Structure formats: structure tokens, C-alpha cells
Amino acid sequence: MSDQKTTHFGYRQVAVEEKAAQIRGVFDSVAPRYDLMNDLMSLGMHRLWKRRTVALAGVRRGQRVLDLAAGTGDLSERFVGLVGQEGAVVSTDINATMLNRGRDRLVDLGIAGNIHYAQVDAEALPFPANRFDCISIGFGLRNVTHKQRALEEMFRVLRPGGRVLVLEFSHPTSLPLRKAYDLYSFSVLPALGRLVAGDADSYRYLAESIRMHPDQETLQAMLEAAGFERCEFFDLSGGIVAIHRGYKL
Questions:
Q1: How far apart are CA 198 and CA 33, in angstroms?
Q2: Domain regions of the chain by residue span
Q3: Nearest Cα to Cα of residue 199 among 73, 25, 46
Q4: How confident is the model over 7-22, as a mean pLDDT?
Q5: What is 175-218 written as a DSSP string?
Q6: By percentage, how much of the chain surpasses pLDDT 70?
Q7: Which of 30, 50, 55, 75 has its CA 20 to 30 Å from the CA of residue 136?
Q8: What is the separation of C-alpha 197 from the centre of its chain, rounded to a whole number of angstroms?
Q9: What's the fold here for domain 20-173+204-247?
Q10: Residues with Cβ < 8 Å from 226, sequence gap 6 or more?
Q11: 82-96 pLDDT, tens per residue?
Q12: Dihedral pair phi/psi, residue 43, rounded to 5°
């Protein structure tokens, strides 16, 4: 167990035990306009990033998939169609508001039967070892207080031969893109958040949390330290987003 007393919340330091509640406040605030803001912030690119993640997952009919930080269920929706009625998807989030919005959205689409919902903490997964064929976490790992612990939990509940996919904002690979991205993140995103969601502070936090997240190579090393093998990452949109993949062999 870590004896760390504080951790980052964006660029601020907060008590470790307070971070989860502050993250909950952010997502309680942004949930009503979450999907709209995703489309506006990424110019619709988040749909392509998620499609690429699902393609790299290689999920097949009859398999079991755990979707962590599922939010409004974009990845879960895609996995449901791949596993079929013989398989199952467990769609989870630590935030009840986001989880409920995702469940309502998928029910409205007629998606039911082979999908289950659970409010869980990625650092302490309530599942037995060797349970899932594939685990995904999309744009959620950067909000986890103890990322290494969460990766170790993913390794524990993944079956041998299974794979993990981490889709997350990352670090642009060129200096000009990095400068343009910083300008966009700290000027445009909070303004969009204020105009569309009535909340500039939450989107300022989201921009800061991206900068505090490990870069591509560091996250790959963290996956390897958790026990994953054949780890690799795929830069998308010039490194603004990266998909990390690892296997439990």
C-alpha cells in the first residue's frame, strides 16, 4: 500500500482520499452534455479513436469483455455486437451519474441481454481472477488515483491469453502540434465548457489532467510492470491520443 498523502487533481495537489470525490463532482457536472461536448471538442474524432480501439481488441463471439470507465457506453455498445448473445459485456464506471446515462442510452437503442452494468472502482475490481477475455478503459485511466494499482487489477481479472486496451489522451509527438494543442486545450476547451455545459472549470481540469498523465513510453512501462507482455502503443492524431495494448500470457 502506498503511503502517499497527496496526489494531483489537474495541476493542484489534493489529499489522496479526496480525489475520487472531486472527480465525481467533475463528471456529475459534465454528464448531461458529455456526448455533445465529446463531439465538439474532438470534432467527432473520438468516434474514430474508439472504432480503432475496438478493432485492435480483436474481440470474438462468445467472449467476455470488461469496459472500465465506460461513461455513456460508446465502447460497450460496439463490443456487445461483437460478442453476440453467447458472450457478455460488463459496462462499468465509478460515477453513478455517468453509468446511469450510459445504461439509459443503450436501453434506448434496444441493447440488452448480453450487457451488464456495475458501479466499480478500477483500483479494486469486484471480479474473480482470470474472468475476462478483454478489458478496455477509454479516457478514464488519467482520472484514477493509483494508476499502477488499477493496471495490476486489470491484469488479475484478465484470463491468460486475454488483452487490455487503454485509450487515452497522450502527448503530441511534434513541437508545433504540442503548442497548438496547448492553445486549444487551455483557451478553447474551457470556453466551450462554459458555453455548452455551463462549466468552464471542469473542462479546465480535463485539460490539466491530460498534461499530468504519463507519456506513451511511461505508460507502456507501467503496463509491463503490472505483468502485461507484448505491450505496444499506437499514436493517433499525432499523439494527441494513444491506444496501448498488452497481453496476459
A1: 9
A2: 20-173+204-247
A3: 25
A4: 89
A5: HHHHHHHHHIIIIIHHHHIIIIIS-HHHHHHHHHHHHHS--HHH
A6: 99
A7: 30
A8: 21
A9: Rossmann fold (3.40.50)
A10: 148, 151, 152, 154, 155
A11: 999 999 999 999 999
A12: 55, 35
